[in-house]
Write the structure tokens for this entry.
Amino acid sequence: MTPLKEKAIKAMLLGNWQNATSLNKILLKEDPNNIDALNRLAYAFTVLGKIKDAKSTYKKVLKLDTLNQIAMRNIKRLSEVGFKKALKG
């Protein structure tokens, strides 16, 4: 695991969503097809209330991996119940 990936995961675990967003965006500049970083970024967007950004990021994941369970589950939650319930689910 790269140091940047470790920092991104740690930021999320600590609830530092702005920093997590920034770190995952950096990872995506290095590799735009990084599915893990895209899923982490989408989740951070969800927590920050940026639902359009979260949905579009999960859609990017599904373009790369049509069977990605994380993206499928979370985009469904966002579409059906809204983000507050999605976070609880």
